[in-house]
């Protein structure tokens, strides 16, 4: 049974969050970013880093880098004890809102092809599969599914 949505506070990543976010990502991902990378992200004007807090504890994180009206979702991580409670969805919705304020209209990400739960979440949020990057991930080696959430359907052009 799915747990009820968790009342979390979503806020911008601050430099002092870097140790907690790096620790969380190390729990969740096989190739986590360093503390320094998160501290740098907090200062990057082309990126958005968000944390989800529950009772002053960081339980989720998501980030986005914007370029020319497109946003790449770099990473999404939720503390394993808080999964399936709406944390990742809340983080992503806020990324889309803040990204829109930056002029971003289309969002992309890569997800492990075998991560059915994440793929389901992304599809529920409007992402569609756009291809596969073979052997993209390491530890373990796995294909990545490329997904896009576009504000308008793309129309192929001929040359």
Proportion of β residues? 35-45%
Q: How would you write the strand order of the largest sheet?
A: 1-2-3-4-5-7-6
CATH architecture designation = 3-Layer(aba) Sandwich
Annotation, overall tally of beta strands:
7
Largest sheet: 7 strands, mixed
Distance between the termini: 51 Å
Spans of at least 5 consecutive residues whose pLDDT stays below 50 are none
* Structural class label: alpha+beta
Break the fold down into its secondary structure elements and pairings:
Blueprint: E1 9-12, H1 18-28, H2 35-43, E2 47-54, E3 57-67, E4 70-78, H3 87-101, E5 106-112, H4 116-124, E6 128-137, E7 142-149
Parallel strand pairs: 4-5
Antiparallel strand pairs: 1-2, 2-3, 3-4, 5-7, 6-7
Helix pairs in contact: 1-2
Textual characterization of the structure:
The structure is a single chain. Strands 1-2-3-4-5-7-6 form a 7-stranded mixed sheet, sandwiched between helices. The chain contains 4 helices and 7 strands. Helix 1 (18-28) packs across helix 2 (35-43). The model has no long low-confidence stretch (mean pLDDT 92). It is an alpha+beta fold. It has one domain: Aminopeptidase. It is 28% helix and 36% strand.
